[in-house]
Amino acid sequence: MTAIAQLRVVQAGPHVSIQDGGRFGLMRYGVPASGPMDMLALAAANHALGRPRGAAGVEVSLGGLVLDCVAGAVTVALAGAGFITDHAGVLSGSWHVLTLRAGERLAIRPGFWGAWAYLALAGDLDCPRWLGHAATHALSGLGGGRLVAGAELHIDAATVLPGRDGPIPCPVLARPTGRARVVPGPQDQHFLAQTMATFLATPFRVTSASDRMGIRLAGPPLPLRAALSIPSEPILRGSVQVAGDGVATVLMADHQTTGGYPKIATVISADLDGIAQLRPGDLLRFQPVTPAQAIALTRQNAIRSERYLAGLGRHRFGPG
Amino acid sequence: MAPPRLIPVADSALLVAFGSVADDALYRRVLALDRALAAAPPPGFAEAVPAFVNLLVRFDPLVTDHVAMADAVRALLDRPAAPPGPVATHLVEVCYDPDLAPDLAAVAAATGLSPDGVVAAHLSGDYSVALYGFAPGYAYLSGTPAPIRLPRKAAALRGIPAGSVLIAGAQCLVTTLTMPTGWSIIGRSPTQILRNDPVRPFLFAVGDRVQMRRISRARFDAARPAP
Description:
The complex is a heterodimer of chains A (about 325) and B (about 230). Chain A contains four helices and 22 strands. Chain A has about 325 residues and is of the alpha+beta class. The radius of gyration of chain A is 20 Å and the shape is elongated. The C terminus of chain A is likely disordered. Chain B is an alpha+beta fold. A seven-stranded mixed beta sheet of chain B has the order 5-13-6-7-10-9-12, with helices on one face. In chain B, strands 1-2-4-3 form a four-stranded antiparallel beta sheet, covered by helices on one side. The longest helix of chain B has 16 residues. The model of chain B has no long low-confidence stretch (mean pLDDT about 95). Chains A and B meet through strand 17, strand 20 and helix 4 of A and strand 1, strand 2, strand 3 and strand 4 of B.
């Protein structure tokens, strides 16, 4: 069954936006990749529907999302974090495939753990694209855009997948991680040795001033060697930037591409999904690894992720 | 000429640091390496991000690693640099009317010039695109003339509209988003740097030249993009 399905946004929290796999390769134009805060979760939701991993879907924040299906029908998958869903009165959660039909409501609310969930659609989300991608850059609104109450989502070639409704296995990889492995630097020379020791020995707390641009941390001050005016330098997702007031921020999906604050360390890519799922108040510790260890960990993580996603493809979703 | 430091960044990049204080010679070395990487990208190369004194080389850690990428970068640095290609020059139109230039009077007072003198100095600048940074389309232009070089203001102002023409030190910037800024706002431009054009989505390439051209309010109102 193929048609157009129409979903109306009844309520959307702040930071609920359309994301795809991200627009990589444009940092030289000031454009970060954007894309999902938790990349594996969007891939899992898409994969559970047989869709390309980076297909456009909806990133749901702790503010939650309520959708009404006003026309047509479409099978959807929710993955990432431990959110709670109410589908036409039936309670379930993240890591689930279900079919939305005209007249039904789907409410997605934060549950016991995690900060971001992903709604993938068995169809093509009709939305604006910027530089070929639907990933929304929060600061500019460029891309597919934020979801606001009253907006409608149109899904072209909307499909109902027979027999697919049911659970998606939630991998251990999907859990929030309170321990991020970092490679010190690239501007660690601007910090006293004692500052680096403090950074690595002390747990930090995630604050509510965290968003798609970065996770702002509270903890011991991280003083610089001297008042600094360093020329603006390139930034990566995962850079731990220390501002002039000694406060650390881990830069995330919508990070600025350059900045004049020194980066004391950089979180390895294998741990970025895990720290994205931390909530305000959660603790985060940093553990140093060498660059060679970082590469080995990323390769191991890629193998585990691939194995998990391949398993999803084989998983049979029966009616129970 | 000291060789650059090659600093591993997490699992997926190498920061090629030519020095720590911005100067033209360092910046030319950044651009030369940028051209060399574009002409002969090593296996696993993902993108290069040039800045004032360094260049970030991002790579795919499933294909290559820091050691292999550092070797590839050193090999490129040892070769004579390809000469820069033809440099394009772009016109940026600026309206300096007082309501679009809230800091023009303050810049005049701080520099001892008249407001028209500030405008004349700004128009006389020979600008080039040093780098894009911060946010999409934020092209940092070098070449603001010495008489109107001022430090940033003590406090940032919020909600400064896109198209604002800002100066601070030797830099000039035409904003593309509504953002806070601590730079001096001396005009507004209707020239689109972020273009809705898939073939050339950004007006400038790094290294391009830019000339400012004064326009009337009527021309600004006619040319400004629909809000």
